[in-house]
Specification:
This protein has 172 residues and is of the alpha+beta class. It has one domain. 35% of the residues lie in helices and 27% in strands. The protein has five helices and eight strands. Helix 1 packs across helix 2. It is globular, with a radius of gyration of 18 Å.
C-alpha cells in the first residue's frame, strides 16, 4: 500500500506542477512521434521499441528526429530489410548527408572536410559526431531535395552493438 500511496502523491504533484494538459500533450506527442517514424520509414512500430528521445522542429522547415532502443532480434531483422528501396551502407555516414542531422540536440555538426573516405565533423554533439563517423553502424538515406541535393531528406542509422535506431528527416 505504501508504494501505491507514493505513486499517487508523485502523479498528483506532477499534475499540479505541470498541469494535466502538459501530461496529456506529452503522451499525444509520443504517439505522434511513433506514427511519424512509421510514416517516413515504412517500418511498423514494433513490440519492444522504446523511445529514448525525440524532437519535432518542423514548422514549415526543420527536423524531426527520434532515438529508439530495440531488441537485438528486431535490429538484426531490420538490417536485412530494404528501406526506401535503397541498400544499407556501413558507416561512416556520407558527410553530404550527415551534417544535416542534429538528432536530439540543438546544433548539427559542421563538416570541415567533404571527403567520404574520412569525413571530419566539428561542432554539434560529440555523440552525433561519433555516430556519423562510426564504422560499426549501418545506415540508409533518402534524398527528396530535387533542386538542392540533401536539403530535404531522411537518414536511418542502426547501431547493432547498442541496439539503437536513430532516425532523422529534415527540410531546409
Amino acid at each position: 500500500m505504501r508504494i501505491k500511496r507514493k505513486t499517487i502523491i508523485l502523479v498528483a504533484t506532477l499534475v499540479l506542477l505541470f498541469g494535466f494538459g502538459t501530461c496529456v500533450h506529452h503522451l499525444k506527442s509520443k504517439k505522434r512521434a511513433k506514427q511519424t517514424f512509421s510514416d517516413f520509414t515504412g517500418i511498423a512500430w514494433q513490440h519492444g521499441f522504446s523511445i529514448v528521445g525525440f524532437k519535432d522542429d518542423r514548422f514549415g522547415q526543420g527536423e524531426f528526429a527520434i532515438l529508439i532502443e530495440a531488441p537485438e532480434q528486431v535490429i538484426a531483422a531490420l538490417s536485412l530489410r530494404s528501406v526506401w528501396d535503397t541498400s544499407w551502407n556501413t558507416g561512416p555516414v556520407d558527410c553530404k548527408i550527415g551534417y544535416h542531422c542534429s538528432f536530439l540536440y540543438e546544433e548539427s555538426p559542421n563538416v570541415s572536410q567533404i571527403n567520404n573516405e574520412a569525413p571530419e565533423y566539428t561542432g554539434g554533439s560529440a555523440e552525433v559526431r561519433q555516430l556519423l563517423t562510426s564504422t560499426d553502424t549501418k545506415w540508409c538515406a533518402s534524398d527528396m531535395g530535387i533542386a538542392k541535393p540533401w536539403h530535404r531528406g531522411s537518414l536511418l542509422i542502426v547501431e547493432p552493438d547498442k541496439c539503437k535506431i536513430w532516425f532523422s528527416t529534415w527540410e531546409w
